[in-house]
Amino acid sequence: MRIGKFEVRVLRLLHLSFLIFLLILLFLNTIINIIDGIIPLRIHIPSQPQNGCNGHSQLCNRKYSNITQLGTHGSPFFGILPIANQNVDIKTQLNSGIRFLQAQTHRNAFGTLSLCHTSCFLNNAGSLLGYLKTVKEWLDTHPQEVVTLLLTNGDRLNMSEFDHAFTTSEIKSYVYIPRNTGNFEIDISTDSWPTLGEMIANGKRLVVFVDYKTSPDLYPYLLNEFYYFWETPFDAIEPVFPQCTIHRITAIADPKMYIINHFLDTQIMKLLVPNRRDASKTNAAAGIGSIGAQVNLCNELHGNLPAVILVDYFERGEVLKIQNMLNGLQ
């Protein structure tokens, strides 16, 4: 059946109307986010005092695998636009007490390994090299801190591209390399990790995980995330967070540590954008859909506390208070 000129015009009009409707929704969401995002940008976020290990002397004798860290999901993607996962920059996140930074990487159109969420056309926060230089500058001036990076390898690139950025940034002097006994199960076990105090004393205060295509023999400091962790599902749009299922894991390891993806999205048509409006509820210590509620659920199902909880808009809610509570700190 042939489509006439009238039908073609109608289809074009419907398509155009849909695009305009979508743009209006995005525009309204942007305005709401800008209004909602101005408030935290104007509030002073206090810096964490430089005491002990990661701000607490009680953590110095605790193994890295025996602490719970609240981490910033999409750490480099900050600002007031609706696609931003955080309100403030990397140094402010670190100064406030965040020690676990997650970031997505892709190769941009010019071939540079960059911090891009979904695609470098949609959301590009600059090069991985620049990001690593920022983290190194912070580590240089904070000698009692252990920081962790979790990098996603969205394009499944060779680890040589990551290693180039780490080498050029001069941050490799800080990277932690696990012991290699030749026994895989022993080397990835929770007991194999040093204490935070030992890591600080040895100057190996940066732990780096990558989700895919790691090469342990060539780049032993770029640790395969799924040798050590499993993850809960991400991109939640239900504010209740009713599950704690094992979503991402490798078949060759049985990790005991796990990561809770506790960040909420809003669905606009088929697009998912971070839910800034309800962040205070999502990041609360107690209540339906709170961090505390999902931690309790996971603990009941799996018998141990999470090693990492990833959140958006970390300064909203009670994120750092929860971190202290889960680690038994006052």
Short characterization:
It is built from 10 helices and 12 strands. The protein is an alpha/beta fold and 330 residues long.
* First and last CA, distance: 74 Å
Tally of individual helices: 10
Fraction of residues in H or I helices = 25-40%
Write down the Rg.
21 Å
Mean pLDDT figure: 89
Order of helices and strands: HEHEEEHEHHHEEHEEEEHHEH
The gross shape turns out to be: globular
Unreliable spans: none
Kindly state the number of beta strands: 12
Largest sheet: 10 strands, mixed
Helix/strand structural class: alpha/beta
Estimate the strand proportion.
15-25%
Please characterize this protein's 3D structure.
It is a single chain. The termini are far apart. This protein has helices spanning 5-42, 90-95, 128-140, 159-169, 184-187, 196-202, 225-228, 279-282, 291-302, 319-326, and strands at 69-72, 100-107, 113-116, 124-127, 147-153, 206-210, 222-224, 229-231, 257-261, 265-268, 271-274, 308-311. The strands form 2 sheets. Strands 1, 2, 3, 4, 5, 6, 7, 8, 9 and 12 form a 10-stranded mixed sheet that branches. It has a two-stranded antiparallel sheet with strand order 10-11. It is α/β, with parallel strands linked by helices and 330 residues long. A hairpin with a 2-residue loop joins strand 10 (265-268) and strand 11. It is built from 10 helices and 12 strands. It is globular, with a radius of gyration of 21 Å.
